[in-house]
Amino acid sequence: QAKQEGRSTFRFFTPALRTHSSRTLRLRNDLRLALERGQLALVYQPQVRLADGKMLGVEALLRWQHPELGPISPAEFIPIAETCGLILPIGDWVLRQGLQQLQRWDAAGLGALTVAVNLSAVQFRDLRLAERIGQLLHESGLPAQRLEIELTESCAMINPQGSINTLEGLRQLQIPIAIDDFGTGYSSLSYLKRFKVGRLKIDQSFVRDLHLDPDDRAIVRAIIGLADHLGMRTVAEGVETAEQLAWLREHGCDEAQGYFFSRPLSPEAMQAWALARAPQQPAV
Ligand code: C2E
Ligand code: MG
Ligand code: MG
Ligand code: MG
């Protein structure tokens, strides 16, 4: 009896079933068409400098509006895209779309914002990454400094020596780099130094309970101190309250991003937000 149950259980968890639920299979199938059918879109979240409240740029975040299943989180569909060869075309689309949006905002007089784009581990492994991004930048006519690449700390640590080489290639193109979700990815300090990135994004898990948890405060203080000593800027992710913001400003965090300022917004809503926030021109 037990043996039979054991066997049927074993049979149920065949590798194919274990790794691919029917929803995953469906999403994988539908994702192929999502790009060409215009179901993917970028939303944008402002990044604000704490010293003076100036909006410096935006992070582009990908959205998939599935015609039947509704909105699908990138946390769900990016891993799927990574396993079926779709992440490279999707990644290129995100970069091109983000840069085009920047040009439209330039024309609308928003000031020279930067756009930060998230990169998947698969894109990052691509030996032609720098070449691809360089080409997309060239097409856009925008200077490299207007783009920023976000790479998660765990991504950078999959193959640290490879990361150093790839990051060097991007640096030669003068493309700014940020380490995303910093503090969750076990990077050693010696690698962090050799990555030579411009910004560290403090993971939102440390920001969330800042006013409740002394350990989180200690960690955030340590990250800010480390960044200062290594000549990097810090960006706090997931800032939702005025208390969090005040603490971060007081402790020398350079920039912040989160619902306190704005949720990720459509291009039109982001433009309206930025124009409403821009300091009034002094009367002549
Ligand atoms: P991430 O890059 O760390 O992005 C931050 C996530 O936190 C976003 O979730 C954002 O909407 C959310 N967030 C921002 N402010 C707050 C806040 O104040 N409170 C809380 N609770 N959350 C906040 P989202 O848009 O669902 O994206 C999830 C992840 O998916 C991203 O994490 C990123 O790793 C990945 N992702 C998004 N777009 C892309 C993309 O174009 N390419 C790749 N490869 N990954 C992407
Ligand atoms: Mg990010
Ligand atoms: Mg993050
Ligand atoms: Mg600092």
From TrEMBL:
<protein>
    <submittedName>
        <fullName>Predicted signal transduction protein containing a membrane domain, an EAL and a GGDEF domain</fullName>
    </submittedName>
</protein>
<feature type="domain" description="EAL">
    <location>
        <begin position="24"/>
        <end position="278"/>
    </location>
</feature>
